[in-house]
Write a structure and sequence with these properties.
The protein has 439 residues and is of the alpha+beta class. It has helices at residues 10-17, 25-40, 47-51, 60-68, 74-103, 178-184, 191-201, 221-229, 260-265, 330-339, 342-352, 364-392, 398-422, 427-435, and strands at 3-4, 54-55, 118-129, 140-144, 149-163, 166-169, 173-175, 209-214, 233-238, 243-247, 255-259, 273-277, 280-293, 299-306, 319-323.
Length: 439
């Protein structure tokens, strides 16, 4: 059953109105319809599937032209919701500083330590499998963690800003392999190039400390240097063939390099600490932390995490991380590492709820615009999630917020039908208005 656009909820209407300056009048109509359809959609995320959610005087060809040809900027859309996030969070950051100042204890003479509010800049990529999209621009062979192999599709490089429990997605970017760029006649940019640009251009909320979180793919000196030049902290995964510096007075230089996996094998049982995982207290892991220098990086804290210590295949269970946060204790380092998972949740929510990977668009411009609209819808859902969580004082997910938004709109829809019947409409009249077909 298609829903009339008149049933648009006031909160969503207010949110969409803030993007009014990014579009012309006809373009704004399409923007509103697509965002509402993303909120209501429970089936296909294609243009046809979205069009089937709303009763509105638009066509599929018109939606296709809006996505691929109309003169509007996806960058303007992303800057808009990031500006909203900045304005919303400035007051919350100041309130958090006040709370921390009241909570801290004075330790002897001198000035008390400064309060710190940390925002996490998380980066990662995700593959959108398109096995049948042979004519789509930007297609390449990318690794899919879901299927455990390389598949034909698009690679989305995404950033996420996490601050005081709120999430703000950054502009989505499409990664193309070098051969694809040459075939399409566009400049090549690696994933590292893209992540360097994300870090270099990112604007954090004032009076916060920014901590960059990345997985092993993005661990290189260039990215660490960029983060350090911005004054950001950084924690990223390490592959097992990375090396750390071991101090040894008997060595020719007084030290030598050793692979992190070989170093882990030299640790005794007393070198490991059995602690709960920050986001799941029922999960316990063994952790070892040492401050050292990582080869081709900088001075850092090396964090080694593993499962049960008595397992024979313990080497396969180890994970290695490096953090530039040299003052953090073991619990804080684990918190940094666990927080990186939020971007995996972002990918899962946007694919499952908003159909991030269900498009059938031909041009790279249209695809990136679709990704941008999905992220705009996600930001609204995070606003709703935060509000519900504050009202109920219970943990609320993006899925909970999405179901709540749908319930509100269906209540408006039932009220609209009730009003139509009171005005004398017959069931056949409503069926014709909602489906465009007569009984």
């Amino acid at each position: 059953m298609r829903m009339p656009i008149i049933c648009l909820d006031e909160r969503l209407r207010h949110y969409l109105t803030q993007f009014r300056g990014c579009f012309s009048q006809p373009q704004f109509k399409y923007f509103v319809i697509i965002l509402l359809a993303l909120m209501l959609n429970q089936g296909s995320g294609t243009m046809t599937g979205l069009l089937g959610q709303i009763t509105a005087p638009i066509s599929l060809s018109g939606m296709s032209r809006f996505m691929g040809q109309a003169p509007w900027s996806a960058e303007d859309i992303s800057r808009n919701w990031q500006s909203q996030f900045q304005q919303e969070m400035i007051g919350q950051v100041q309130a958090e500083h006040i709370r921390l100042k009241k909570k801290r204890r004075r330790q002897g003479r001198g000035r008390p330590p400064k309060t710190v509010v940390t925002g996490y800049l998380i980066g990662d990529d995700s593959t959108m499998s398109k096995k049948r999209g042979k004519k789509m621009e930007g297609l390449g062979r990318h690794h899919s963690s879901t299927e455990g192999k390389r598949v034909i599709g698009h690679s989305l490089v995404q950033g996420l800003y996490l601050l005081l429990g709120r999430r703000c997605p950054l502009p989505p970017r499409m990664y193309r392999q070098k051969a694809v760029c040459e075939a399409e006649g566009i400049p090549f940019a690696s994933k590292v190039d893209m992540m360097v640009e994300v870090i270099a251009t990112f604007e954090p909320v004032p009076d916060t400390v920014t901590h960059v979180l990345l997985d092993t793919w993005y661990t290189c000196k260039r990215i660490w240097r960029t983060a350090r030049q911005r004054g950001f902290l950084i924690t990223s995964g390490l592959k097992c063939n990375r090396s750390l510096r071991i101090e040894d007075p008997d060595a020719p230089k007084g030290w030598y390099w050793q692979r992190v996996d070989e170093y882990a094998q030299t640790l005794s049982d007393a070198d490991w600490h059995y602690v709960p995982w920050p986001s799941n207290k029922e999960r316990w892991v063994y952790v070892h932390v040492v401050q050292t220098r990582i080869k081709k990086l900088y001075k850092a804290q090396l964090v080694i995490i593993r499962g049960q210590i008595e397992e024979e295949d313990k080497q396969d269970k180890m994970r290695f991380w490096a953090s530039s946060d040299l003052t953090a204790n073991r619990d804080m380092l684990l918190h940094h590492i666990a927080t990186r998972w939020d971007i995996e949740v972002l990918f899962a929510d946007t694919k499952e709820i908003l159909g991030l990977d269900q498009y059938q668009l031909m041009t790279a411009t249209a695809i990136c615009r679709f990704w941008t609209l999905v992220m705009a819808a996600y930001y609204f859902l995070d606003q709703e999630r935060d509000q519900q969580q504050r009202q109920t004082n219970q943990h609320t997910t993006i899925g909970d917020a999405w179901r709540h938004v749908q319930a509100i709109h269906w209540c408006h829809f039932i009220d609209w039908i009730h009003q139509k019947f009171r005005l004398g409409y017959q069931p056949a009249d409503l069926y014709l208005e909602l489906t465009g077909a007569s009984l």
